[in-house]
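README: folding subset

This subset contains proteins for which both the sequence and a predicted structure token string are available. Records are stored as plain text. Below is the entry for BlaI/MecI/CopY family transcriptional regulator (65 residues), shown exactly as it appears on disk.
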Amino acid sequence: MNVSELLRLLQTEHDETAARADSLHEHLGLPTDEPPTNVTRSRLGRLVRQGLLTQPGRGRYQKRT
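--- output ---
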């Protein structure tokens, strides 16, 4: 999964709500065990630091509006 897929999913499926990394994995049909989900959390955290996403709560990510 690449960053553009994450952003597109957050924009279309979770437009007004924040999403968790494991729910994104479930929606995309990716493995939901801990190692792959941690990689996604890391990528989402990087996007928060770059200003593309917001983090309204611990472990929750949302597209910046």
